């Protein structure tokens, strides 16, 4: 994981650079319409991969923050040996795509499946769309599992993190453009958000581990 402070996320530099190069070529060839289109595409890509710096609020020990920007669409109780709740967050192209570590922890595992990019309105998307699942473990052996699943994104999920890596809360670990994030939380977690809340990665408190 690299602490990238550049205004554009590292995973998006290639996209923005190619689009900018096409813009320059079209401009030099006096292709007015294509120049205008390439300019708009470059701006859109720079916006999608924007990478603002965010200062972590002074939350108490045991806090878990939102790993992504987006809207909470559901909060459910589940029956599982390790987890008791799951919070689903929907992010669109307008939301910041940078992914943030939810708590001071170590990455226990990461799995990345390179699949399709169907609309979330198609039931099959839950089974075949590209997804990445990460499990974080804090110093008290509490586990938080996060699953990122793409919708109709133009870019894959970028994960820049390795297993057993020590992580600070709020650190960047990847990028997801237009996707759904599901957070699985243990029984000793107190949820601090509600359905319909707009979240900001590393800025919004999801709740506390007791």
Structure description:
The protein has 210 residues and is α+β, with helices and mostly antiparallel strands. It has 2 domains: 10-48; 63-209, Glucose Permease (Domain IIA) (Distorted Sandwich), CATH 2.70.70.10. It has 3 helices and 14 strands. The chain has helices at residues 13-28, 32-48, 125-128; strands at 63-65, 70-77, 85-91, 98-100, 105-113, 131-137, 143-150, 158-159, 166-167, 172-175, 179-185, 189-191, 198-199, 205-209. An 8-stranded antiparallel beta sheet has the order 9-5-6-7-11-3-2-13, with no helix packed on it. The chain has a 3-stranded antiparallel beta sheet with strand order 1-14-12, with no helix packed on it. Strand 6 (131-137) and strand 7 form a beta hairpin. Helix 1 (13-28) packs antiparallel against helix 2. The longest helix is centred in the N-terminal third of the chain and has 17 residues, at 32-48. It is elongated, with a radius of gyration of 18 Å.
Set down the secondary structure blueprint:
Layout: H1 13-28, H2 32-48, E1 63-65, E2 70-77, E3 85-91, E4 98-100, E5 105-113, H3 125-128, E6 131-137, E7 143-150, E8 158-159, E9 166-167, E10 172-175, E11 179-185, E12 189-191, E13 198-199, E14 205-209
Helix pairs in contact: 1-2
Low-pLDDT parts are: none
Order of helices and strands: HHEEEEEHEEEEEEEEE
- Rg computed from alpha carbons, rounded to a whole number of angstroms: 18 Å
Question: How is the largest sheet built, in terms of strand order?
Answer: 9-5-6-7-11-3-2-13
Structural class: alpha+beta
CATH fold name of the largest domain: Glucose Permease (Domain IIA)
- Number of distinct beta strands: 14
Shape: elongated
By CATH, the architecture of the largest domain is named Distorted Sandwich
Give the C-level CATH assignment of the largest domain. Mainly Beta
Q: What is the tally of helical segments?
A: 3
How far is it from the N-terminal to the C-terminal residue, by CA? 29 Å
How many domains make up the 3D coordinates? 2
How many strands, which pairing sense, and closed or not: the largest β-sheet? 8 strands, antiparallel
Proportion of residues in β-strands: 25-35%
Task: Indicate the percent of residues in helices.
Answer: 10-25%
Within CATH, the superfamily of the largest domain carries the name: Glucose Permease (Domain IIA)
Averaged pLDDT: 94
């Amino acid at each position: 994981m690299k602490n990238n402070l550049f205004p554009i996320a590292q995973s998006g530099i290639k996209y923005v650079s190619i689009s900018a190069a096409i813009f320059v070529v079209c401009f030099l060839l006096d292709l007015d319409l294509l120049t205008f289109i390439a300019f708009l595409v470059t701006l859109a890509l720079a916006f999608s991969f924007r990478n603002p710096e965010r200062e972590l609020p002074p939350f108490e020990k045991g806090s878990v923050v939102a790993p992504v920007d987006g809207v909470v669409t559901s909060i459910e109780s589940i029956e599982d040996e390790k987890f008791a709740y799951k919070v689903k967050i929907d992010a669109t192209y307008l939301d910041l795509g940078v992914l943030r570590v939810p708590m001071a922890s170590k990455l226990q595992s990461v799995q990345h499946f390179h699949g399709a990019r169907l609309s979330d309105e198609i039931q099959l998307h839950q089974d075949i769309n590209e997804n990445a699942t990460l499990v974080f473990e804090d110093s008290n052996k509490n586990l938080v599992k996060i699953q990122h699943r793409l919708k109709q994104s133009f870019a894959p999920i970028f994960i820049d993190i390795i297993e057993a890596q020590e992580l600070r809360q709020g650190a960047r670990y990847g990028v997801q453009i237009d996707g759904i994030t599901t957070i699985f939380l243990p029984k000793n977690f107190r949820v601090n958000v509600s359905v319909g809340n707009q979240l900001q990665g590393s800025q919004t408190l999801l709740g506390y581990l007791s």
